Amino acid sequence: MERDNKQIVLKSYINGSPLETDMELKLGNRIKVEAPKGSNGVLVKNLYLSCDPYMRGRMLDFHDSYIPPFSPGSVIEGFGVSKVVDSDDPNFKRGEFVTGLTNWEEYTLILNTSQLRKIQQHDHGIGIPLSYHIGLLGMPGFTAYAGFYEVCAPKKGDYLYVSAASGAVGQLVGQLAKLHGCYVVGSAGTTHKVQLLKNKLGFDEAFNYKEELDLEAALARYFPQGIDIYFDNVGGSMLDAALANMRAHGRIAVCGMVSQNSRTDKQSFRNMFGVISKRITIKGFLQSDFIQLYPRFLEDITGYYKEGKIVYIENMNDGLESAPAAFVGLFSGKNVGKQVIRVGSE
Amino acid sequence: MERDNKQIVLKSYINGSPLETDMELKLGNRIKVEAPKGSNGVLVKNLYLSCDPYMRGRMLDFHDSYIPPFSPGSVIEGFGVSKVVDSDDPNFKRGEFVTGLTNWEEYTLILNTSQLRKIQQHDHGIGIPLSYHIGLLGMPGFTAYAGFYEVCAPKKGDYLYVSAASGAVGQLVGQLAKLHGCYVVGSAGTTHKVQLLKNKLGFDEAFNYKEELDLEAALARYFPQGIDIYFDNVGGSMLDAALANMRAHGRIAVCGMVSQNSRTDKQSFRNMFGVISKRITIKGFLQSDFIQLYPRFLEDITGYYKEGKIVYIENMNDGLESAPAAFVGLFSGKNVGKQVIRVGSE
């Protein structure tokens, strides 16, 4: 059986911020909805696709990073939740739901099935939305979990600040920190997001960084005692402002630099000397280095969610054709919560 | 018995780089060469005074650091090696040598004797110069020891780069790293220093950073495989260049920022994104946080020195009046090795 297969293709490597016109919707070749014998692959129908800031790095013509760039003219690759339509891998059966790397298209033949995780039906049954497997229970959730517990060295009573706090990672960092007994302040870029942080996500305080002329002064207002942990999703001037407000022996987990348009944007710091005088640790990390903790993460976070201890906010857009705009919107803060594209029905 | 007591006084808080004219030689009041009964203090004759870059921070009108600023009009305080002339503390006897915080003057009444360390005569006897107790066996040596072993997480075979490599701290970092089985490259600011690094201090390679137009390219030349450990004494553009050349999971121990004229000089970085992609740890430290290791440090380094495994280069200037110029020279790299002022004879 052959089907049409719409795809989102990267037209060429980007310069600076990604634009919708850097990508295009293509019809693609008609695809045989089967996993060829001997391929050991699975043919999946993609249901939800994940828009993640790290993907911007794969749109650059830079081949020396931890993950190779996309190829111009090729379909964009990313995390997704998919349904197995046909399988040549005995570990996966038709009708099962899986999550892992797939393509921004309707149907994908996934040959590297070892990176797929089967979504247990009973999890789905007890009320965890399928799409959460690319958010709360996927890479962004695991980034928050590994970053908070393994990089931040959190203690009860610590003062924690997280930027991009309502995003896919930040919202979970703040909630985990609250469960750990930290005092938690987050920043975001709209009044609506600030309200969500305080009212729905349980942050102690939150502020709109776009309304602050002086980020150092803003942080000093929210942290008169100083910051023990800064979970940094944005880099640049916010990182500098945090440096000025860190306490002695403070920890900065550097998770993202969404404020930076390129790998080599100049970032200016006035407060770098504080790294010495306050014995600050700045530590960059990738969730993939902690992958041995993934089973524990799934168990912990599934448990917290079932017990009603955490919530998760998604920004769901409909249709593969909405993906380029949704992706680009990540970098101007258009999304409220984890950005997901719904491309197919279950 | 009263004596004249020449002193070096800080005239006023500095702006930017310290100048000789920020300090002045004063005759001071005549001093009674005795430790008053009931003072529990010791009256010492100062023999060697230490010029250390951290003292610049105490010349600034900034009261929120780990150590309070000097008071304008007062005698400068710093580490020294001194001889006890009179004692009201039963732990110290006339004629003994001590090291610790003293003043930039000929005679000092030290009331806080708990911070003094007695120099064992037999150490002195077996050929360790007294002045080494403010260098190799003093704060700078301990900074190198604690920074290398406790902050850098060194492994045999690691590629280590140290800036200001012929200085009081850098020269020991490089030698300890060689003993640990690392590949060691240092940078310094003159051909003479580069020769010392290679020929006397046993570095694998060394270069004159002032002759390099492109620091990133220079480091790439000396570390084609990349840098595992950067022991940073200078900050600024060298730190940025090192970031570009770090390997995955690299460690940067931030010990000093001698290139920066003030606490809030703007430092620009183009390579900060590497902190994430290469999972770099940047860690500032102060030796004082590791003080419990001091006894082990003294034993280890004394042992290495006696066995001929390490050497130590000093820049000795004569006379208290030479102190301001010697101190200022630290920041233009005039010193070759640890800068010491000889103010009295043993």
Gross morphology of chain A? globular
CATH fold-level label of the largest domain in chain A: Quinone Oxidoreductase, Chain A, domain 1
C-alpha Rg of chain A (nearest Å) = 21 Å
Reading off the top of the CATH hierarchy, the class of the largest domain in chain A is best stated as Alpha Beta
The percentage of residues in β strands of chain A lies in 25-35%
Total of helices of chain A: 10
Which range best describes the helical content of chain A: under 10%, 10-25%, 25-40%, 40-55%, 55-70% or over 70%? 10-25%
The quaternary organization reads as: homodimer
Greatest interface: A-B, 35 and 35 residues
Mean residue pLDDT of chain A: 95
How many individual domains of chain A? 2
What is the first-to-last residue Cα distance of chain A?
19 Å
Number of strands of chain A: 18
Mind summarizing the main beta sheet of chain A?
A: 7 strands, mixed
Fourth-level CATH superfamily of the largest domain in chain A: Medium-chain alcohol dehydrogenases, catalytic domain
CATH architecture of the largest domain in chain A: Alpha-Beta Complex
